[in-house]
Amino acid sequence: MLAMNYRGPQRVRIDQKPLPQILHPEDAIIRVTRSCICGSDLHLYNGNVPDTRVGETFGHEFIGVVEEVGYAIQKLKVGDNVIVPFNIACGRCAFCKQGLYGNCHESNPQATAAGGIFGYSHTTGGYCGGQAEYVRVPYADVGPTVIPEGMDLDDAVLLTDVVPTGYQAAEMGGIQKGDTVVVFGAGPIGIMAAKCAWLFGAGRVIIIDQIEYRLEFARNYAQCEAYNFRSLEDPVVFIKKTTDSLGADVCIDAVGAEAAGNAMQTITGRKLLLQAGSATALHWAINSVKKGGIVSIVGVYGPTDNLVPIGNVVNKGITIRANQASVKRLLPKMIEHVQEGRINPKALITHRIPLEEVADAYRIFSDKLDNCIKTVLIPPSARI
Amino acid sequence: MENTQGFENKRGGDHSHIKGWGIDADPKNDPTYPMKQRTNDEHNGYTWERPPQQTVNVEVLHSIERPNITAVFGSTVPTKGLSGKIRRYAFKHSESSYAHWLPLLLADRVDMVEGLIEDINKGSFPNILAEKGIKAEWKHNKTGLLKRWAIGAVVAYAAFVYVTRRRS
Ligand SMILES: NC(=O)c1ccc[n+]([C@@H]2O[C@H](COP(=O)([O-])OP(=O)(O)OC[C@H]3O[C@@H](n4cnc5c(N)ncnc54)[C@H](O)[C@@H]3O)[C@@H](O)[C@H]2O)c1
Ligand SMILES: [Zn+2]
Ligand SMILES: [Zn+2]
């Protein structure tokens, strides 16, 4: 089958690989119909996630058709069209049972700090990802959810990560009616977080980025204010000034380890890898939130350490909430929001690219070329 | 939001000797809600009925912070070569230690060279420019690409002049 093949930092290609096999009684094999490239893939692409092995196939956002199931599978049937959450979850450990499907204890031998994720290095379990024609899906009766009748595949594929992650970013913000919410990052995740902040009753939503076309997109799509930090002398002072010098009620970090905007963070975090990525956006979030406010982090960082103003967290009495999105927990509600027209995921998709052109697709998404917001890869079998 | 399970002492042990034990427990003060629908299951320890174990027929390195290999795991690219040796060393240290993560990053770079050798042994030198997505860059960011190449050329020329001058 065709599958993306990682060869080293910023080097990926399409290759022939053996078809996946059922390796566990609760496995299924899925034929992929759509897969995405995510901001999280950029941490892998740039070689910043430890134990990313040459030969791996990335891709944690995919949907497809069930081709084969293991003997212990009871709910899923061959031929089902399914949304596959990016987290691999057993559904019966103490964490899954409490809704923490992004923190399963039975899906990642390599690290206890992270649950299993498809196509996301050996640090999250060493699974093959969905930027391929076929994928092995473990615990197939737990995660995969049948795509509702009539739902567009382009909407469905964004329910694997972007929509629930943006939603959870807002949810973790504990937004109360009338709150001012500042979202750092106008990528797909930040834009979705801004959109969802309104569903919780935000009074004002502000998004910060450095890319003009993304800010423009966010203004229209999420009906929010959008500012370019390159034209602000100091984003923290700007946010203070626009909130009566008090700070925002809720700040959301939807940037993570590839953040720009502070030379010292960029050099130590992204160039020298002396910290687990650059923590510029998180730094700004902590310093722009009001006293007693909430900082919600969905931006992804590496497993070592980051330079953040923790002293200010203490002095301001900030609550920090963070997690990998619990996709399965949120899916029913997200499906309803899409069906009721409150969220329109597929509007984020700017690029539909054949799987075979995966190297160019990564370049476009990584360098934010051609006004790219979200890139979807389409395998040959789904292009007919 | 309310922790409907209350804060029972499921871990066992009698705390009656502690005056006021649990007197201020407040089930509403649970900042993990709604991310976590608390059942206090983890108070019972690692005792849940585990899913069946996937057969382990490749080397799976596991964190020393857990007693076992998880019930399922990915086996896409098994450890091999020098990078594999470095990874094995890394897994002797906990996730809390630089001695775990830094060797893993080093192993990734070694792996890249091993991958290149593997490609060449298979009889094909990889098209690195294509792997870096040069086609897309040429199409959508020609000036940026040309600028990078120009800077590269100037740096290379300066280095060449410097080296040849020093020699003569
Ligand atoms: N927690 C989860 O479950 C989860 C799931 C998916 C993605 N993520 C993470 O969310 C983050 C965003 O993902 P994405 O797909 O939107 O990525 P993306 O790369 O498309 O977007 C990131 C945006 O942040 C902007 N940016 C850079 N530095 C900034 C700064 N200092 N302040 C404000 N904006 C800045 C960039 O210009 C870019 O537009 C990534 O770190 C990704 O790993 C987390
Ligand atoms: Zn993602
Ligand atoms: Zn679990």
From TrEMBL, chain A:
Keyword Cell division attached: no
InterPro entries: ADH-like_C, ADH-like_N, ADH_Zn_CS, GroES-like_sf, NAD(P)-bd_dom_sf
Keyword list, A-Z: Metal-binding, Oxidoreductase, Zinc
Cofactors: Zn(2+)
Keyword Cell wall biogenesis/degradation in annotation: no
GO-annotated molecular function: oxidoreductase activity; zinc ion binding
Protein family membership: Belongs to the zinc-containing alcohol dehydrogenase family.
PANTHER family cross-referenced by the UniProt entry: DEHYDROGENASE, ZINC-CONTAINING, PUTATIVE (AFU_ORTHOLOGUE AFUA_2G02810)-RELATED, ZINC-TYPE ALCOHOL DEHYDROGENASE-LIKE
Protein name, as recorded: Glutathione-dependent formaldehyde dehydrogenase
Species in which this protein is naturally found: Arundinibacter roseus
Organism phylogeny: Bacteria, Pseudomonadati, Bacteroidota, Cytophagia, Cytophagales
From TrEMBL, chain B:
Membrane-crossing segments per the record: 145-163
UniProt keyword annotations, A-Z: Membrane, Transmembrane, Transmembrane helix
Chain residue ranges for the region called Disordered: 1-30
Compositionally biased region (Basic and acidic residues): 8-17
Protein name: Uncharacterized protein
